[in-house]
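RECORD TYPE: inverse folding
INPUT: C-alpha cells
STRUCTURE:
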C-alpha cells in the first residue's frame, strides 16, 4: 500500500497531526526529543480509526488495535520495544475470531488456535518459540 500521507509538521517536539493529500487527518500523536511517544492514532481515508497504540522512544509498546474500513476490529496485540509479545487475536471480516495465541520475543509460542468465519475451531498448533 502506497504511503498517501502528507505531513505539515515543522518540528519533532510536542503534538503533531499528519494529513492525507485530500486534507483529512491521517495520524496524530506526540513527539518528545524527536521520537514518537505516548498514544498515536492512525486513520483510514474514510475517516475511521485504522489503529491506536503507544510508542516509547519511537518504538511500539503495550496494546495495539487495528480496524478494517467498515469499522470491524481486525486484530489486537501487544508490543515490547517494537517486538510482538503477549496475547494476539485476529478477526475475520465478519467480526468472528480468526486466530489467537501468544508471542514471546517476536515468535509464536505455545498453543495457537484457528477458527473459521462461523467460529468453529479448525486447528490447534503448538509452537516452541
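DESIGNED SEQUENCE:
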Amino acid at each position: 500500500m502506497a504511503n498517501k500521507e502528507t505531513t505539515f509538521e515543522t518540528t519533532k517536539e510536542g503534538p503533531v497531526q499528519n494529513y492525507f493529500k485530500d486534507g483529512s487527518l491521517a495520524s496524530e500523536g506526540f513527539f518528545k526529543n524527536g521520537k514518537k511517544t505516548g498514544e498515536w492514532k492512525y486513520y483510514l481515508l474514510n475517516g475511521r480509526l485504522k489503529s491506536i497504540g503507544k510508542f516509547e522512544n519511537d518504538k511500539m509498546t503495550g496494546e495495539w488495535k487495528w480496524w478494517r474500513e467498515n469499522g470491524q476490529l481486525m486484530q489486537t496485540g501487544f508490543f515490547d520495544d517494537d517486538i510482538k509479545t503477549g496475547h494476539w487475536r485476529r478477526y475475520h471480516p465478519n467480526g468472528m475470531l480468526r486466530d489467537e495465541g501468544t508471542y514471546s520475543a517476536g515468535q509464536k509460542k505455545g498453543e495457537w488456535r484457528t477458527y473459521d468465519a462461523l467460529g468453529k475451531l479448525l486447528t490447534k498448533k503448538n509452537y516452541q518459540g
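NOTES: The chain has two domains: 1-71, 83-129.
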